[in-house]
UniProtKB/TrEMBL annotation:
GO function term, MF aspect, one: DNA-binding transcription factor activity
Pfam families hit by this protein: HTH_5
InterPro entries: ArsR-like_HTH, HTH_ArsR_DNA-bd_dom, HTH_MetalResp_TranReg, WH-like_DNA-bd_sf, WH_DNA-bd_sf
Protein name: ArsR family transcriptional regulator
This protein's record includes keyword Transcription: yes
Keywords in alphabetical order: DNA-binding, Transcription, Transcription regulation
Domain HTH arsR-type: 14-107
Amino acid sequence: MAINDAGRCVSADIAAGVSPAAALFHSLSDETRLRIVRRLARGEARVVDLTTELGLAQSTVSKHLACLRDCGLVDYRAEGRQSFYALTRPELMDLLASAEHLLSATGHTVTLRPAP
């Protein structure tokens, strides 16, 4: 589901007994993946769009998209030779909204969702 410190996907850890909840939160614990999620909340994008908008290498974006796909949070549709990535779970925005409120209440105001 998410890439752990050893560089492998957490789905292997789930098979070894890590709870799916821990794996989900681990997948969202990376700043790059949060940036990708925030961008995809505004609408679908290609890898090239994400690399340009986020200032990241193609390999970095692809690696994190694969992680988010393993979690079931992101998927893509093919159009010709291009792939358009989008969020699959709109309730993820509710989770991020709750995290924003919680962090604000603890004195750490952040913006995890795109402006409406």
